[in-house]
Amino acid sequence: MDKKKQNFELKIQVDDKTAEGIYVNFLSVFHNQAEFVMDFGRMVPGKPEVKVMARLLTNPTALKQIVRTLSENLDRYEKSFGPVPVADMPTPAGPLQ
Questions:
Q1: Residue 93 burial by CB count (10 A; 0-12/13-18/19+): exposed, middle or buried?
Q2: What is the pLDDT of residue 63?
């Protein structure tokens, strides 16, 4: 049996509300054996609260593909615009992982 990868094209549909996007600057991730849960939120300087704007759930295989895709895109971004500086941020107390 031929196990070559088959290329195909996905048609991606985005409705108007989703196309607006949501700004986030915070991510909390937790997992069990079967799934990963990612809470994307917004922090406002000077406030200790985080408002969760979206919660995404996925399986480990899909997460690994997502991480690979993000890494490849960040590499391309840095080749075009230079390294992204990462500031040291204090780790908040609480159940964040």
A1: exposed
A2: 98
Q: Measured between alpha carbons, how far is residue 39 from residues 30, 72, 78 in Å?
A: 9, 22, 26
User: Would you give the DSSP letter of residue 75?
Assistant: H
Q: How far apart are CA 9 and CA 26, in angstroms?
A: 32
62-77 pLDDT, tens digit per residue, is 999 999 999 999 999 9
**Residue 52: C-alpha distances to residues 11, 22, 39 (Å):** 29, 11, 6
Q: What is the pLDDT of residues 9-32, one digit of tens each?
A: 999 999 999 999 999 999 999 999
50-58 β-sheet, strand order: 26-31, 36-43, 50-58
